[in-house]
Design brief:
The protein contains four helices and four strands. It is an alpha+beta fold and 127 residues long. A hairpin with a 6-residue loop joins strand 1 and strand 2. The radius of gyration is 24 Å and the shape is elongated. The model has no long low-confidence stretch (mean pLDDT 86).
Length: 127
């Protein structure tokens, strides 16, 4: 008679320390819909990204500023919260598949910050 290794008393293998969720003490979390395929995913398991973009594309910003009556008009931004299921996040390269050793690395990835053109370094004057 064949028995499973878990029934014998051996530990079950565990792929991730948090089992792919951030639930911890909660028994259940409400589902959310994937932004790409509308699959139901537990809210704590969904891969969430907050996207902030200009409403106007970069090519049209100059045309709008020239045609505008107001000086220094701040263009409105578009704030979108996207929530993906794991398969859509991997397929659209939001997250990457990592090796067994790579999965142990829990440090967040470096954040990409663009350098603003206004913040120029002071130029040393020649005396």
């Amino acid at each position: 008679m064949a028995t499973a290794t878990a029934a014998v008393g051996g530990p079950n293998t565990q792929k991730r320390r948090n089992n792919g969720r951030s639930k911890k003490g909660r028994g259940h979390t409400k589902p959310v819909r994937c932004s790409n395929c509308a699959r139901c995913v537990p809210k704590d398991k969904a891969i969430k990204r907050f996207l902030i973009r200009n409403m106007v594309e970069a090519a049209a910003v100059r045309d709008l500023s020239e045609a505008s009556v107001f000086d220094e008009y701040a263009l409105p931004k578009l704030y979108i919260k996207t929530q993906y299921c794991v398969s859509c996040a991997i397929h659209s390269h939001v997250v990457r598949v990592r090796s067994r050793e790579g999965r142990r690395d829990r440090t967040p990835p470096q954040r990409f910050r663009s350098i603003k053109p206004d913040a120029k370094k002071p130029v040393a004057s020649k005396a």
